[in-house]
Write a structure and sequence with these properties.
The protein is about 30% helix and about 20% strand. The chain is an alpha+beta fold. It has 2 domains: about 40 residues, no CATH class; about 45 residues, no CATH class.
């Protein structure tokens, strides 16, 4: 009980001598929120880039045609992502198409 007052926490003791559940206070809610944010940060959530969209590095595709792959490549480049030099043939679980890579800083 000695250090609990600094966090605004206390335990109520019932007549039977057992302790009741912790009483929530504004400080405890803030601590719980900070712990949740810390867990999210540690768990590897994607960082937001300056444009406000999450950068997910990796291969995009396969797209059925080269035209579609080049269109998506241009869209990614216009959004400010670093993209591979071009599109290339790729296969994903038996699906053949064209892919390109996106890189994050």
């Amino acid at each position: 009980m000695f250090g609990l007052r600094m966090f605004g926490l206390r335990r109520d003791v019932l007549a039977s001598g057992s302790t009741a559940p912790w009483v929530f206070t504004a400080m405890r809610a803030a601590v719980v929120l900070l712990l949740a944010l810390l867990i999210l940060a540690i768990s590897g959530c994607k960082n937001e880039d300056a444009g406000g969209s999450a950068c997910e590095a990796g291969r995009r595709g396969p797209y059925a045609t080269q035209d579609t792959a080049w269109q998506r490549w241009r869209e990614a480049q216009a959004q400010g992502f670093a993209v591979s030099n071009g599109v290339f043939p790729c296969w994903d679980q038996g699906t053949r198409g064209y892919c390109f890579n996106v890189f994050c800083d």
